[in-house]
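Example noted here:
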Amino acid sequence: GLENLRQAMRLNPNYPDWYIQLLGGATFAAHQYEEAVAILRTARQHTRNSRAYLAASYAQLGRGAEAKAEVEETLRLDPQASVAGMSNIEYYIAPADKEHFEAGLRKAGLPEGS
């Protein structure tokens, strides 16, 4: 999936920000946290989802202050955001990928939710 997203971005240099979110999320799922951060930081406008992926990436890198700042931004965009809610919005085929995202969100300090 990563190469397909990169090809789509090459073919459409005016790609929308959701391409960045998808690529950042896929890169996070591949445990490439530094690259995920670099990709996600290029978004022109962040959504709560891109902020959540940034928070989880920073948390997995051990960059707690930055993870916390992204959690605060996630909650500013969506005061009801939670680990449970975010993992239900994102679609994962493999349960391990969903658990990996949830673990990153927990580590970043996003509320658990229900």
